[in-house]
Amino acid sequence: MTTLPTGVQLLHDPRFNKGTAFTPDERQALGLRGLLPPIVADSALQSTRILNELKRQANDLERYVKLIALQDRNETLFYRVVIDHINELMPLIYTPTVGQACQLYGLIYHRPRGLFISLNDLGHVRECLANWHEDNVRVIVVTDGERILGLGDLGLGGMGIPVGKLSLYTACAGVHPRSCLPVMIDVGTDNQTLLDDPFYLGLRQKRERGPDYDRLITEFITAVQERWPDCLIQFEDFANANAFRLLEDWRDRVCSFNDDIQGTASVALAGLLSATHLTGRSLADSRILFHGAGEAGLGIGNLITAKLVDGGLSESEARQRCWFVDSSGLVVAGRDRLTPHKAHFAHAHPPVADLLSAVKALKPTALVGVSGQGRSFTPEILAEMARLNEKPVIFALSNPTSKSECTAEEAYTASAGRAVFASGSPFAPVTIDGKTHVPGQCNNAYIFPGIGLAVVATRARRVTDAMFIVAAEALAQQSGHADRALGRIFPSLSQIRAVSREIAIAVAESIFAQDLAGVPRPPDIRALVDAAVYEPVYRPLTA
């Protein structure tokens, strides 16, 4: 049982601090008399003050710093403000602003959040975990910082990603913040700019890529299982060489998943399923061309394949719906030096050198950008997609905004407003010939929080691809006629708590159906999920 601090210690504990919202009776009982201004301000007034303070900041990075400072001093108020203003604040606490925060991590660092486990801790990882103050950790997001958004190797600065992702677990689905733990695995960095930066806080060495890397990861996962056996581990922003390998090594041994591979796949699949209502073309009748054949693209291709196989196609037929262009051109059978993951999608076709030529040759119905190459969907490519399709599906999924393959305006303009568009980073609505089009944001935050809530509620032993298909189907069903009338294939982010609840219920059903739950199946799964949801409201405190 947690002992409630009092006095100054209470005001410095973000779990219990209410700031000026402490009542007179609480101030008397908890040793706060004289430590606060006399006026009692409720959470509504505090929220208004926070929003006004954010508006006064010069830029989004300063707003991010203010929000993290609020999270560090008053957890309840932080989540109340974020939940009530999710459309405005999600781009600040996560993409795109979090990318800049990771780049400048050493400069804006104020206080530690989460665990930092480095090569220096080999043989001592259990001690690191023992030092964490919460005994009921249920969700860990862990990164080694090598592939942060579209920004590459940011070393220890990548810690901003687990912190941001876990904030979304709580804000979007209600996973309790005290059950969440961000972890940075610091094995060095190959980013020379960081190594030369006097403010860089990570190990000043090139990345370890040998046996010690695997030893550290294994020791970490083993230690997590010993201390928190019901914990979900989310791998985040590992580079390709490790991402696929770690997922395959651990997915059938511990409750884990890779959000860049599986979460991105699920939200993209949801977008493609939702788009069928606008195009009138089923997923099985689609031909999808991916620009980029890394974690995200191959993950999407594999999940589309699994969904189509569930629908009755053979695996070979299902894979034929997905084609890939990488840095060497179209991925085709017989090409040299294909990785096993790419080889699954290497179809019989003459070599094609570039994306525009691939669009002309393959005549795809959907173009999905996961390349990390900004503006790679040129006007010529977009115009060709519009010529080939009445309603071309254009997904520019790379983050942050500077890496997006095209803007919403470029896609709508090239297609005279006919494109079905979604992006990884948010874009403003676009008006073409008097009609306003609202772009969808293909954001993993629609998927992973709901899956996490389901895992927490059911104490699931594993996370399977079937759960990501179920989550995609549940998300696609949340887009209604009003959304589609605007051209939007995802529900508004303002509804994300309700959307995540429906996803969690559907995934929980799947967990019980697969016999992966750690609790007995209850009569009412909705009630089980709802009981696990954290609501950020001030509760009476007594000494």
Quick structural summary:
With 543 residues, the protein is α/β, with parallel strands linked by helices. The protein has 25 helices and 14 strands.
Helices, strands, pairings?
Layout: H1 7-11, H2 24-29, H3 43-55, H4 60-73, H5 75-84, H6 86-93, H7 97-103, H8 105-108, E1 115-118, H9 125-130, E2 139-143, H10 160-173, E3 180-186, H11 192-195, H12 211-227, E4 232-235, H13 240-250, E5 256-258, H14 259-279, E6 288-291, H15 295-310, H16 315-319, E7 322-326, E8 329-330, H17 340-343, H18 355-362, E9 366-369, H19 379-388, E10 393-396, H20 408-414, E11 420-423, E12 430-432, E13 435-437, E14 440-441, H21 448-458, H22 465-476, H23 481-485, H24 496-513, H25 525-531
Parallel strand pairs: 1-3, 2-3, 2-4, 4-5, 6-7, 6-9, 9-10, 10-11, 11-14
Antiparallel strand pairs: 7-8, 12-13
Write down the CATH topology of the largest domain: Rossmann fold
CATH superfamily of the largest domain: NAD(P)-binding Rossmann-like Domain
Shape: globular
CATH class of the largest domain: Alpha Beta
Q: List the uncertain runs.
A: none
Please give the largest β-sheet.
7 strands, mixed
- Count of domain modules: 4
Pairing-aware structural class of the strands and helices? alpha/beta
| Number of DSSP-assigned strands | 14
Strand content: 5-15%
- Intertermini distance: 14 Å
The mean pLDDT is 96
